[in-house]
Amino acid sequence: MKLFNYLLAGILCASAIAVSAQHRADPQKLVDPESFSMILLGDPQGYTKYDINQPLFDLCTAWIADNIEPLKIKAVLCTGDLVEQNDNNVLNRKMLNQTSREMWEAASQALKRLDNKVPYIIAAGNHDYGYKAAENGRTYFPDYIPFERNSTWRNICVSEFPNREGRASLENSAFEFDEPGWGKILVIAVEFVPRDEVLQWAKDLVNKPEYKNHKVIFITHSYLDIGNKRVTKDGYKISPQNSGQAIWEKLIYPSSNIRLVLCGHVGRGTGEYENNVAYRVDKNSAGKDVSQMTFNVQYVGGGPEGNGGDGWLRILEFMPDGKTIKVRTYSPLFGISKLTRHLAHRTAPYDQFDIILE
């Protein structure tokens, strides 16, 4: 019996070593070992709306969790639309096979892989409100994404603003990071087509003495359209609202320290990569460049009824010079196998480039 116990212990020990030392088919590394990264997760609604697609959302978050150390991941930034419909039980079989509750539960389960490991910061999207698509401001977001579920938020969340129902929620929230080479970074996420009072909250926040010298990253769901034009009108009943151009005029342009805007929402159903991304740079009122980037995945895995996004993520590598962010677009779905890893990197100029924040 003792011999058996020794052998069993040896097997378990060897198995543990094998798992911890497992070699990935396509391991990702930082360009500079002194860098750190944040991961951009585009609209995941295409994953959650079909049960057969939901494992791809799990794969994305599992890959992120697995790479927290090698990529020095400090945060996951999500452009919203966690679900296809916020509050609906009647299934349209042409576009989904999950009820709203099933979609919210799937999103919550995928994000659970990140809980207590890394902060994820989400800009709630139009499909996260109302019944099917932002008919009103009701949302289950704070029910499934409560503050207490992820301990990594506790020491970095510095401000929040009530949602449209008057509830405390991470829909409008700000997080502070302090990283070597970059100093203080403030990440602000806001609700879909934010109200004036939300924009005023964000404006007041970035102008406070303790944050005025921070580099600010602003995340909102709808802002920059395909073709690199800011959205001027969002055709949803939710009210009041501010679209991309209004957000620029009321908040981004007047704020000297908002240097990067991230969004999703828009795309073309045909699925070509270039028709689901956008990027532009404009000067703010202080004469500083503001980079604005759209990244959406819901159509690129076979169109609106495809697999939800082929697992595409963006790795934002913050270089040690304190001003350069290297953007690369990567899919763990393809990278997980030696047979498909040659497909795991999108290297066109619109998918791999540098952002300079002077």
From TrEMBL:
<protein>
    <submittedName>
        <fullName>Metallophosphoesterase</fullName>
    </submittedName>
</protein>
<dbReference type="InterPro" id="IPR029052">
    <property type="entry name" value="Metallo-depent_PP-like"/>
</dbReference>
<dbReference type="GO" id="GO:0016787">
    <property type="term" value="F:hydrolase activity"/>
</dbReference>
<dbReference type="InterPro" id="IPR051918">
    <property type="entry name" value="STPP_CPPED1"/>
</dbReference>
<keyword id="KW-0732">Signal</keyword>
<dbReference type="InterPro" id="IPR004843">
    <property type="entry name" value="Calcineurin-like_PHP"/>
</dbReference>
<dbReference type="Pfam" id="PF00149">
    <property type="entry name" value="Metallophos"/>
</dbReference>
<feature type="signal peptide">
    <location>
        <begin position="1"/>
        <end position="25"/>
    </location>
</feature>
<feature type="domain" description="Calcineurin-like phosphoesterase">
    <location>
        <begin position="41"/>
        <end position="266"/>
    </location>
</feature>
